[in-house]
Amino acid sequence: MLDFTFKNTTDVRFGNDHIDAELHDVLSHYGQNVLLVYGGHSIKKSGLYERVLNLISDLNVTELAGIEPNPKIDSIRQGQKLAKDSQVDVILAVGGGSVIDAAKVIGSAAFYDGDPWELVVDSAKRYEIDQLPVVDILTLSATGSEMNFGAVISNPDIPLKKGTGGPNSPAVSFLDPTLTYTVPARQTAAGASDIFSHLCEQYFDNNASNDISRNMIEGLMRTVIYWAPIAVKEPENYDARANLMWVATMALNGIVGLGTINSWTVHPLEHELSAHYDITHGIGLAILTPRWMEFALNTNTKPLFARFARAVWDQYGYDDMELAENSIRRTHDWLKSLNHEMTLPDVGITDDSKFEEMAKAAVVDGKLSTDAYVPVTEKDAIRIYKDSMEEFNK
Amino acid sequence: MLDFTFKNTTDVRFGNDHIDAELHDVLSHYGQNVLLVYGGHSIKKSGLYERVLNLISDLNVTELAGIEPNPKIDSIRQGQKLAKDSQVDVILAVGGGSVIDAAKVIGSAAFYDGDPWELVVDSAKRYEIDQLPVVDILTLSATGSEMNFGAVISNPDIPLKKGTGGPNSPAVSFLDPTLTYTVPARQTAAGASDIFSHLCEQYFDNNASNDISRNMIEGLMRTVIYWAPIAVKEPENYDARANLMWVATMALNGIVGLGTINSWTVHPLEHELSAHYDITHGIGLAILTPRWMEFALNTNTKPLFARFARAVWDQYGYDDMELAENSIRRTHDWLKSLNHEMTLPDVGITDDSKFEEMAKAAVVDGKLSTDAYVPVTEKDAIRIYKDSMEEFNK
């Protein structure tokens, strides 16, 4: 197990009894000027928007609507201006990971005089400046942004989708599973694929002695594998929504990756897809993951894939290679059972003209040729993208 | 899953590179006056005492030595006086859970004018007053005190061993697995039994829908089951000591019990043993656990014991009752493989004269007859104590 430090001060309020009783006090603790950040129509349609405004009607609320999936740097620029103009004390993010990610970077940009894209490109700058506290009301189980330090921002002009770290995780996160009842099946599935991918990225790691992390991750994988299909089929099943919401948070609040090398592969590959084609992140991950697993399985990695088969997919037997291959097939079939789209053409990517450029960028951004669990060269990355054009038939 | 709130701000520094580089700055951040709290000779023998003093030679260090296992209220009284007299800014606890527990309560007592036993009996009082920050250097993997809000203090005059909660978990915890290399086999084993019991207490819970907690706990159980025997046999095996240290923390930092009813049974029963006979807590738990499991297994609880058998003990089959019984036998045999003492007479408790009094106190203190996973009456508690007099032969 590698040395690590861990400190995460996010105050989690889980369940459906907290928002009405606590939101106002939580926000006014930081001040009277609130920047309300959210996405599109879904929170208006569900009634959450009105409910929140009623709860904080005596505070000064400035609104920034229109945060997109794969949140764009222009939204951050707008937020920066609003936060400064309105002397905002606290940001209230109502939405999924994109909205919370945007809120985090706006929180830093409020104390920065330059263009906020500079903060995304060079995270170190964010540690030198202050950050507005972020309070969030989560409406989608997926990214884990509600209890971590990360944010992913896209700049369509380059195009580049880039991860960035900051000094603070959200101050307070309201996790109410009932707020995800209205999430459509496709988004629920994409969120589940994202959660599963976060767990895979931390599980397939070259630090072999970190057994406790793997044991915890296996438990979290079993959780998402079991409950995601239920949540897709029964959107108002509280237990399914609750287990899915908390596993999303636990999958990426830092804990299960402690003491590992934690060098990710599939996310950098997917970020290129989202940057160039603006596809749904979780769907991109679902498409790439089984192809990456096929690429990564070899004599050295066979034992870990076999362990994955036994502990996560309930496969039994003595032939590790057979188990490993089974685990990949099971992974694919489970993802497919959630998402209808399981190839790149399914999401509208029908030609391979950008694969070389994407592969080059992914390898550089993810340090894939040197640091990955199984090193990925540009050629390997192109192969994974090309494999994703066809039906998976292993 | 039940509603919950969670916030834990402990700053964990895990590994063997942190203390020399960071201890001084961590302490002096809080001030110059340090109360150093520790146990007996072990940290002097290991050289840790001298190493620590050298690192903080420019700070004003007041010492409180002699914190016992099952820490006594008299130590807290001494600490209270020293903390006040020396205007202490921060407490440095060097030792295992007993030392950290004592430091936490001393941290509150420093701001209290009455007898600190009042703070133990009525935890609410501790939330009304301030608490000195506690920094700890952990030397035993067991209690989880290094990342939680609890403390257990004994008052031999009553006699009573009582758990108490406070407003703050340790500010900074240094977890260096190499510092546990010198822990004798028996203490390593007792610590492992304590960890395993913490996991059982949270696993066997009447909130049936909290699948994610159970999945995480199963992973943590597998970790302690695998690594504890290795640590006992190979005291300087870093991976064993590291996995054991982190599983101890994860077993009781609050996370895996979130959303559960979390009403414990074996600990209240054991606290009576330690209060009356001052036996090693972990050994008492190891003796009681299989007998409690035998008591708790019935038609209603059979499915959970069968799940425990499959997920933790790798038992296969279709007969849930057979699996459940196997899991109890496996639990006993694993505990026995760690500890030589597996009956009460083994630890010097040879007559049952106090069992009635102990049973009565345990049932009241643990609300066992109403809140436990399987309700325990006084009569049941006596039966569990009596069963613990004999060899376990199920």
Automatic annotation (TrEMBL), chains A, B:
Protein name from the UniProt record: NADH-dependent butanol dehydrogenase
Every Fe-containing alcohol dehydrogenase-like C-terminal domain range: 188-389
Record organism: Ligilactobacillus pobuzihii
Keyword Transport: no
Signal peptide: none
Domain Alcohol dehydrogenase iron-type/glycerol dehydrogenase GldA positions: 10-177
Lineage, uppermost ranks: Bacteria, Bacillati, Bacillota, Bacilli, Lactobacillales
GO molecular function: alcohol dehydrogenase (NADP+) activity; butanol dehydrogenase (NAD+) activity; metal ion binding; methylglyoxal reductase (NADPH) (acetol producing) activity
PROSITE patterns: ADH_IRON_1 (PS00913), ADH_IRON_2 (PS00060)
Keywords: Oxidoreductase
Cellular component terms (Gene Ontology): cytosol
